[in-house]
Design a protein that fits this description.
Elements lengths: L1 H45 L3 E8 L2 E12 L4 E2 L5 E3 L5 H13 L31 H5 L26 H7 L17 H15 L3 H10 L8 E2 L14 E4 L2 E4 L10 H4 L1 E4 H12 L5 H7 L2 H6 L5 E2 L13 E2 L4 E2 L8 E7 L2 E8 L4 E7 L1 E4 L10 H10 L3
Parallel strand pairs: 6-15
Antiparallel strand pairs: 1-2, 1-14, 2-3, 4-8, 5-8, 6-7, 9-10, 10-11, 11-12, 12-13, 13-14
Helix pairs in contact: 1-11, 2-5, 2-6
């Protein structure tokens, strides 16, 4: 009698579990269906030229959408082979490379940056010695450097796009100042990531692009990913980029060279390659040996531990992040392990979100920057609205 009751109880529990899972799957399907409708409506209304979206669960693509044109002049549609520029989504690759060098005993995260880049001693630091600034400070955007690579940001025609030589930055060090006490707060800084790229080059003996290709892209089989100028055989897949302001559409620089800022923003890649990167972040037992060969899981998870609170994102908009780890951002509003990063450069905008505990991840990327008046709230910005809609799917 007892065995029969136990069997019935187990049957009931399993039945309820199946019903719950079925209800959850139905909800997820409806949520994704609603998002697809919203996504295409928003893009059309805002006149976004091209965009892609993907949502993963348990290392499987459960939703994807490819919208519009990759190149209007060539009548080239967006599809899964379209190569986008990922801008600041390059930064976590730089962070992973630093952790690789740390794991191989070539550096410590709390080493002074000047140990590897002594030329930084020419920078003015009213809060102490430049020797007090560490690699960890650079990885958490807390070293006190300005936000932009150049000190100019008015959009004048004569302003340079990005410095092409490290010597140009070095020449400006005597005219550069640390803006707050290192380690005291978060403040997004592109130059800090450039300095990490130079450290990678010094310790590895490789150009930054070569190091990342050999030690991250190739092991993850991201064979169509590259930095800056597109190889000839991939040019037919390369997306152009656009700006829309006051109803007028203009073109970005096609195949732009990010110069010395490559470690900060130089990555180009199609979605299938970026999905391989997402699977590495989320984890996949079938690929454990490969992934551990890139970076130990414990070291990757170390990058996700909160280091500092972030009161606002890089553009001063509140609500997209709560904390920064080691180059990765966290949003505790969406759960203790919700992570990601964004990118915005030359008309391309992208956001990567992932939650390893839920085994979910997403990408949304645009080849069009719709420019709104300054201080426009996120709910009136097409990118902000769609980013929030993606995050609600988790």
């Amino acid at each position: 009698m007892i065995c029969r009751n136990v069997s019935f109880f187990l049957f009931l529990v399993l039945s309820l579990s199946v019903i719950t899972m079925s209800a959850q799957q139905t909800k997820n399907y409806e949520d994704l269906k609603s998002f697809k409708t919203l996504y295409e409506q928003e893009l059309k209304q805002a006149r976004v030229v091209g965009s892609s979206f993907v949502f993963l669960r348990d290392n499987k693509t459960i939703a994807e959408d490819y919208y519009g044109s990759a190149n209007l002049a060539k009548n080239q549609p967006v599809d899964e082979n379209t190569i986008y520029h990922w801008a600041s989504n390059t930064k976590p690759f730089t962070g992973i490379a630093i952790m690789q060098l740390r794991d191989h005993g070539l550096l410590k995260l709390d080493d002074p940056v000047t140990k590897y880049l002594p030329e930084l001693r020419a920078v003015h630091n009213p809060f102490g010695s430049m020797d007090d600034i560490t690699i960890r400070h650079l990885m958490t955007h807390s070293a006190g450097f300005r936000g932009g690579t150049w000190p100019w940001g008015k959009g004048k025609d004569w302003e340079p796009f990005e410095p092409t030589e490290y010597s140009q930055l070095v020449a400006m060090f005597p005219y550069t100042e640390i803006l707050f006490k290192p380690g005291s707060k978060f403040s997004y800084s592109n130059p800090g990531i450039i300095f990490l790229g130079k450290i990678i080059e010094k310790l590895s003996g490789d150009d930054y692009e070569v190091y990342i290709d050999k030690n991250i892209l190739k092991p993850l089989e991201m064979y169509r990913s590259y930095f800056d100028t597109t190889p000839y055989h991939l040019l037919k897949y390369r997306s152009h980029s656009y700006f829309i302001e006051n109803g007028k559409r203009t073109e970005g620089h096609f195949d732009a060279n990010t110069g010395i800022t490559v470690s900060n923003s130089g990555l180009n890649s199609p979605l299938p390659d970026m999905i391989k990167y997402l699977n590495f972040l989320v984890g996949d037992t079938r690929m454990r040996e490969v992934y551990e060969g890139v970076l130990k899981r414990s070291s990757l998870e170390e990058m996700w531990q909160p280091q500092l609170p972030t009161e606002a994102d890089a553009n001063g908009n509140k609500g997209f992040t709560t904390d920064i780890g080691l180059t990765f951002f966290l949003d505790k509003n969406l759960g203790p392990t919700h992570l990601g990063h964004g990118g915005d450069q030359n008309g391309f905008i992208s956001y990567i979100d992932f939650d390893p505990s839920m085994r979910e991840a997403s990408i949304i990327v645009f080849n069009t920057n719709v420019i709104y008046p300054k201080n426009t709230p996120q709910e009136k910005n097409v990118v902000g609205r769609l980013r929030n809609a993606v995050r609600s799917l988790f």
